[in-house]
Amino acid sequence: MHRGRMNRLGSANAPQGVVLLDVIIALGLFVLTASVVVGGMSASVNSAFRMGRELTAENLAVSVISEMSAGIRPVTAEGPEPFEAPYEDWTWQVTIPPMPSGQATGGLRNVEVVIIHEADDVTYRLNQFLVIDPAASGEGNVLERLEEL
């Protein structure tokens, strides 16, 4: 009786083409799985990069508003202007929308700061009420005027 070699499952040898087919299927599943994992990682990296740019834009807008609140920067409509290094690829613009005629504002006006990074298509807008003319309400204390509102 002729005894053939036994494979690890204890059956006779499978045809050689089946082994090759198993290897090709395993390789195909590996490539498919790897492409899904790489695609997910790429999306995650892009999302993290985008969130970092948006956080930078928000911080720059808060800086401009804070400088105006502190009196370092005048509260006037300006821009678009580039920031200083290392943010020279970002621009800022300040707009002050007109108030309806006859409406008393007590020197408070809505100020909008727009931060733009064109290369990454990021635009961030921050609106805040700031004192434009402290003499308009007759008082210099901003906190007292806010309490009146």
Overview features:
about 150 residues, four-stranded antiparallel beta sheet, rod-shaped, single chain, alpha+beta
Task: Describe the protein.
This protein has 149 residues and is an alpha+beta fold. It is 42% helix and 20% strand. The chain is built from two helices and four strands. The chain has helices at 16-70, 142-148, and strands spanning 78-82, 91-95, 108-117, 122-131. It has a four-stranded antiparallel β-sheet with strand order 1-2-3-4, with helices on one face. A hairpin with an 8-residue loop joins strand 1 and strand 2. The longest helix has 55 residues, at 16-70. The chain is rod-shaped and about 95 Å long. The N and C termini lie far apart (106 Å). Mean pLDDT is 81; it is low at 136-145.
Cα distance spanning the termini: 106 Å
Strand content: 15-25%
**Share of helix among residues?**
40-55%
Order of helices and strands: HEEEEH
Shape: rod-shaped
The number of E-state strands comes to: 4
Largest sheet: 4 strands, antiparallel
Q: What oligomeric state do the depicted chains represent? A: single chain
Structural class: alpha+beta
Poorly predicted segments: 136-145
Total DSSP helices: 2
Write the layout of secondary structure elements.
Layout: H1 16-70, E1 78-82, E2 91-95, E3 108-117, E4 122-131, H2 142-148
Antiparallel strand pairs: 1-2, 2-3, 3-4
